[in-house]
Amino acid sequence: MSYLINTDQYLINDGKYIIIPSKFLSVGDTYKGGTIGYIYQSGDPGYDANIQHGLIIGTIDTGVCWDFVSMTLVTGTDLYIGDGSINTYAMTVAKNTNPPDTYDLQAYQYCFDYTSDIYDDWVFPSYFETRKILENYSILGVADNVYYSSSESTVDSAYGVELFEGQITFINVQKNVYGYGVIPIRYF
User: Fold this and answer.
1) Could you give the CA distance from residue 159 to residue 175 in angstroms, rounded to a whole number?
2) How far apart are CA 113 and CA 119, in angstroms?
3) Where exactly are the structural domains of the chain?
4) Which terminus of the chain, N or C, has less C-beta within 10 A?
5) Above 50 in pLDDT, residue 3?
């Protein structure tokens, strides 16, 4: 499914705008430093019927854990579309306002430090952002694995999404397990 993005608006005499499309994007397209992983649908926060918005994914890493050291709750994480940026900010505050060895937020750090082309505004996706991306696994070529989200559930676990043989399942994942996937995202 394709939607309108990158529009040019023209004012017509009666004070209304007409929108002229200049480009359409689909899941799987290369765009602004990554690959379109999800396009917002009606009902999603940030959805606009006239201008396309969604999630761009970067390179997936499967060699990190969520937090190996502390098992300390990072307060302020949430589950929904758009919350990846808020969760990433909460983790940045937690890392910067506590003693150096309090957190070892490897999955967060991978996303926060990720750069592609000129883009360095990548974040650690929330549970529903991760889930929406994985619903497009066949287009994106995402491998079976458990994927971390930035949404915490308890002091020692986070919400994760398991992709196995095309089935997507909610899973509570231990924060100190290596080998789960993490997908850096940016918004458009």
Assistant:
1) 10
2) 11
3) 3-57, 61-187
4) N
5) no
